[in-house]
Amino acid sequence: MPSDPPTTEPALVRRTLIGTALLFLGLFLFLPLIAVFVHALEKGLDAYLSAVREPAALSAVRLTLLTAAVAVPLNTAFGVAAAWAIARFEFTGKRLLITLIDLPFAVSPVISGLIFVLLFGLQGLLGPWLADHDLKVIFAAPGIALATVFVTFPFVARELIPLMQAQGAEEEEAAVVLGASGWQTFFRITLPNVKWGLLYGVILCNARAMGEFGAVSVVSGHIRGMTNTVPLHVEILYNEYNFTAAFAVASLLTCLALVTLAVKSVLEKRKS
Amino acid sequence: MSIEVKGITKRFGDVTALNDVSVEVPSGSLVALLGPSGSGKTTLLRAIAGLETPDSGAIYFHDEDATDRPVRHRNVGFVFQHYALFRHMTIFDNIAFGLQVRKRPKEEVRERVHELLRLIQLEGVENRYPAQLSGGQRQRVALARALATRPKVLLLDEPFGALDAKVRKELRQWIRRLHDEIHVTSLFVTHDQEEALELADRVVLMHDGKVEQVGTPDEVYNHPATPFVVNFLGSVNIFHGRVRGDRLSLAAGLVADAPAHVSGEDRSVVAFVRPHDMDVDLTQKNGSSARARVKWVHPVGAVVKMELELLDDKKEIEVELTRERHETLRLSVGEIVYVTPKGLKVFVGTYSI
Lengths: 272, 353
Hints:
The complex is a heterodimer of chains A (about 270) and B (about 350). Helices cover about 80% and strands about 0% of the residues of chain A. Chain A has 13 helices and no strands. Chain A has helices at about 10-40, 45-55, 55-90, 95-105, 110-120, 125-130, 140-150, 155-165, 170-175, 180-210, 215-220, 230-240, 245-270. Chain A is globular. By secondary structure, chain B is of the alpha+beta class. In chain B, about 25% of the residues lie in helices and about 35% in strands.
C-alpha cells in the first residue's frame, strides 16, 4: 500500500473535510438553485414563458437593464478615476476618500435608499424645488438609478486600487518620458495593464446593479409596469401567491448570476 | 547637449531631498551621480527628466531654460531602475513606443527598431514579451527603448542595480563602449563607487541632498574634498590627532609632517589612510610607526587583506599588502608588527562615521 506523502493529511481527515464542504455547498447553494428552476417550470414551459412575457415582467426587465446601463458606466468611470487618484497621488483627504468608497458596503441598502428619499422626497431637502420644476426622482426611474449607482459604486474602485498600487507608476512615467500624452498613456499603458481587473469589477458591479433589492425597494414605490425592477417584481408576484411566475422571473436573475460566475472564472484564469 | 542644474532644492514634506544642488554635465560626457541611498541622487535625475518638479532652482538643456518644460517635450531617454518595460507589449512595441506616439511612419519605425535590436545584440526577440527575457536582456531593451527617439540626453537610474555581479560587469563595459560610439550626453545614478570610478568621465558625489565634490575619477579618489568623499570611495582607516605648526601627531603615537592646508595653529584634525597605503614592517624603521598585532589574514586574491590591532589604543585597522610583500613578511596571526601610514588625507575638525 503506498503511504501518504508526509505533507498530506490522513485520508479520513481529507474525506471528512471535503465531504463537509460539498454537503454545505449542496444544501445552501445547489439545492436552492435547482429549486428555482424546478418551481419555475412546475406548470410547464408555457406557464413559464407567459410569466416571463407578461407586460409587467417585460417592463421590469427593461427598467433593470436601463438601471444597469446607467449605473455600470458611471461607476466604471468613477472607479477608474478614484483608483487612479488613490494609487498615483498623495493628497489630503485620501484616507477619507478610501473610507467613503467603502461606505455603501458598510451601511444597509435600506438606509442608502432612505437617504435619497430624505434628499429628493416630497418632504425632503430638495423635494419642493424638484416639485416646482416638475421633476420626479423618488418613485420614478431616476431615483432607482441613483440608489443603484450609490449601492454599486465600490465595486470597480475596490477591484482596481490594490491592482494599480501593486503595479506602481513606473510604466506610466516611462511612457510620458518617451513622449506620450496623458490620453495616450492612459489608453496604451494604464488601461491595458488593469483590463482584466477592470472587467472583473464591471461584471460584479453589473450583477449587483441588476440584483439590488433593498435600496431600490425604498425609492421605487412599487408601481407595476412603471417603477418595478426584476427583484421587486419577483417579490410582488411572490406576495400575491403567484409562485410559478415569481420563480420564473427569478430564474432570469439566476441565469444572470450563472453567466456572471462563468465570465468571472474565465477572467480569473486570464488574470493569473 | 549639455545639462546644467542651477541651485535646485526639492523637499518631500519635512525631508529635503535636494538642497541647493548645482551640477554641470558637459555635452557628450558620461557622468556618474554617486552617493549612499537617501543622498538625493535619484531625485536629481528625476528632476532633470521632469518627473519631479523642483521647489526652486533651474535646469538648462544646452543653455535653454527647461525648468518648466513638460516631461514629454524634454526628449530625454530614461532607463528606470527596474526597467519599467511595458509588460503587455512585445519587445518590438516596447522599443517602438516612443516613435509610435510621435506618429512616425511605420516603415521608419520598423527600421529603427531593428537597428536598435542589432545595437543591443538581441535580434530575434522582437515578438517576445518582457517577462520572457533575462534581467540583462531586459536592461538592454530598456536602453534601446530610451534611445529609439534619438534623445540628446540619456538618464539611467541605478542601471545595473538589479543584476548579478558577472552580468553587471559585462553590461558596464558594454555601456562604456556604446557611449563612446554614440556620444549621447549620459548621466547615471549609482551607489557603487567602483562602478562610478570605472565607468564615468566625471563623478558627482552626493551626500544628504548636497553635492560634496565633482571631478574626474582620479580627482575624487586621489584628491578628496571632504571626509565624506574619502570615506565613501572605499575602505579607509581613520586616525584622530592634532596639528601643531607643521607637525601632525595622531593616535597610537604616529607622527608625520602636516600637509600645508592644515598646518598652522594648534587644532584637532582627522586623517584618513587607505588600507593599501599602510606600510608594514617587522622592525621599527623610524619614529613614525605604530606597534600592532596581527588579528586576521585573508590571503585570497590579488592583494592580501589583513586586520591589525594597534597596541596603543586597541583600535582595529585594515591593511592591504601586495602578494610579494606578503611573501617576504610571512605574517601570521598574533605577530607584532610596525605600521606606517603613507598618503594621509588630513582634514581639520573631528569626524565620526
